[in-house]
Write a structure and sequence with these properties.
The complex is a heterodimer. Chain A is mainly α. Chain A is built from 10 helices and no strands. The longest helix of chain A has about 35 residues. Helix content of chain B is about 20%, strand content about 0%. Chain B is built from 1 helix and no strands. Chain B is elongated, with a radius of gyration of 10 Å. The relative contact order of chain B is 0.19. The chains are: A mainly alpha, B mainly alpha.
């Protein structure tokens, strides 16, 4: 059948729902073994953080969609929360596998206790579902959203720096084989938008990043004897 | 995914990006 915008939308939502079928809201045994390898076990912090993000998102989403769409809002929220759980843990596990192979490290205590990393990952998972459900829902049942929920709405909701969100996108795409082509293109557009404007806002961590790499370059120059 | 432009270089990953290496 020819792909109409509505049919594409419905396919994407169906794909998302299929992903959720295998959703689990608890970390897998493999992932728990990584957590147990950490100097400081991150399990409690991760579970608390996911619960907090779910609560904050629920409030802000309900406020944004207006009372008229409360039911769709709560449906979307429930889908979102489960997808975030599954995506979060799945990504963690896949990413740690890659990092373990790449760095030959087994103790990821620093990374798994890094708040910016986890918040960026959760925001990325939320953005995927929002982009799938939000835009498509408005196409399919004319949901009248009072606030624009498209990117970078989630960064403001979670008080997250765009540059930190940018850092997880590529690894997220690598670790999440079930992402649809549309979703990958959407995340790539987010990347471009961050690099073109959002990352250059005055309080962005990008400036520290540039400063530190310049300092590292400066040190590298000094360490070379001039005669070479 | 073929049509995504991976930009991380060799030796760069999520651990380095978050200064957790």
């Amino acid at each position: 059948l020819p792909q109409t915008p509505v049919r594409t939308a419905m396919n994407t939502i169906q794909q998302l729902m299929m992903n959720l079928n295998s959703a689990s809201d608890k970390p897998s045994d493999n992932l728990i073994s990584y957590f147990n390898n950490c100097t400081v076990n991150p399990t409690e912090g991760i579970l608390d953080r996911v619960e907090n993000v779910g609560r904050i998102f629920k409030e802000r989403f309900a406020k944004a969609v207006g009372q008229g769409c409360a039911e769709i809002g709560s449906q979307a929220t429930n889908i979102l929360i489960y997808c975030v759980f599954e995506s979060n843990y799945n990504f963690n596990f896949m990413n740690l596998l890659q990092e373990e192979e790449r760095l030959s490290v087994h103790n990821f205590s620093k990374l798994l206790n890094n708040n910016d990393f986890h918040m960026s990952l959760l925001a990325c998972a939320v953005e995927v579902v929002m982009a799938t459900y939000g835009r498509n829902a408005s196409q399919t049942d004319g949901m009248n959203i009072e606030t624009d929920l498209s990117f970078p709405w989630i960064l403001n909701v979670l008080d997250l720096k765009a540059f930190d969100f940018y850092k997880v996108i590529e690894s997220f795409i690598k670790a999440e084989p079930s992402l649809t082509r549309e979703m990958i293109k959407h995340l790539e557009r987010c990347e471009h938008r961050i690099m073109e404007s959002l990352a250059w806002q005055s309080d962005s961590p990008l400036f520290d990043h540039i400063k530190q790499s310049k300092e590292r370059e400066g040190q590298a120059d000094q360490s070379e004897p001039t005669c070479t | 995914p073929q049509d995504y432009h991976f930009g991380l270089e060799e030796g760069e990953g999520i651990s380095e990006l978050f200064d957790c290496d």
